[in-house]
Amino acid sequence: xxxxxxxxxxxxxxxxxxxxxxxxxxxxxxxxxxxxxxxxxxxxxxxxxxxxxxxxxxxxxxxxxxxxxxxxxxxxxxxxxxxxxxxxxxxxxxxxxxxxxxxxxxxxxxxxxxxxxxxxxxxxxxxxxxxxxxxxxxxxxxxxxxxxxxxxxxxxxxxxxxxxxxxxxxxxxxxxxxxxxxxxxxxxxxxxxxxxxxxxxxxxxxxxxxxxxxxxxxxxxxxxxxxxxxxxxxxxxxxxxxxxxxxxxxxxxxxxxxxxxxxxxxxxxxxxxxxxxxxxxxxxxxxxxxxxxxxxxxxxxxxxxxxxxxxxxxxxxxxxxxxxxxxxxxxxxxxxxxxxxxxxxxxxxxxxxxxxxxxxxxxxxxxxxxxxxxxxxxxxxxxxxxxxxxxxxxxxxxxxxxxxxxxxxxxxxxxxxxxxxxxxxxxxxxxxxxxxxxxxxxxxxxxxxxxxxxx
Length: 455
Fold this sequence. Notes:
extended
């Protein structure tokens, strides 16, 4: 076997592999013997099929399979041993591949095109200082949050006269627009005034119990989905409704903010988590600050990645990568789509190359225990398992293990990458200069605008 790498540019190269019969035939012969023992052919006893017949039937396919396996291993080993910064996958030279005569050749030459990233260094000292923000959480934010929680955990009250936002209960009847041969639609239902169109809303506001409202159902509701919600029908059934309807109001209910009492505390924080309003306010403020920290951490993470991209120059084989994207997604994406999405793709490739180098230089590794612990944290957050007891720990562990052991291992891969990113970015954060700053929520929103961080 001969292997030769030839670089045409800093980011493009070709890898030529020459194989002789001695490279692949011993393994092919081994496979042929195995086939001879187990192949079943009419007219021959198992294990007594002539070698010449097995060769004729399976020799070519076994040779092709073995050569492909050998090529795959050879390319992978060569890239690893020579520490080539390969991006994308090696692409075979199609013209040379199509010219191969599998029936008559015994010596073969294969050429693969490689895309390479240029050499680069990660010098933390050269990176500019970054800001780490702390959002002020004062009385204003606390009062707004508590008011939102009171609305979220609202109660119900009966009203005599309807207002915007109320729920009207009563009997709905179709007055006109009935299809020929069909019965007029009627039902007992609830009409949410929040879903009534603005032009029709005045008909539903200021009415009393016992009043009758007559309206055009197509003008009152925006679409079939809203009509279905109001009538209890399926969307396809609601599509057949039209014309005038009458609605006799039997009852009017109104959402009222929850009272600030023990029941409210228990609904928001869990049973008996706090016992006084003072404790409740302190706990809510703590939660606000925790949420703000999550958001400021996310902004710092984005700022770190932006700084890496702006201060570390990496050249990529752009045309090669575009060809690779088209080849590996053949029939799924167009040349125009690749061009439109390439800038974002190349950014992610460069960022991953930087992270990989940081991990390699600092011996950052991710073990199964790291992935499991991160997943358990995710489970606790998602399901609200914040207590500390053996039974709860076992439940969290079981849910996390089941999540990671999905059939395709996609969840494990996703969590692995998440933990890897966290470890790398934590290391970078410890190496660069971070300047702490305290800002208001409005100032943070301005900073976060357009970078995908919400506050």
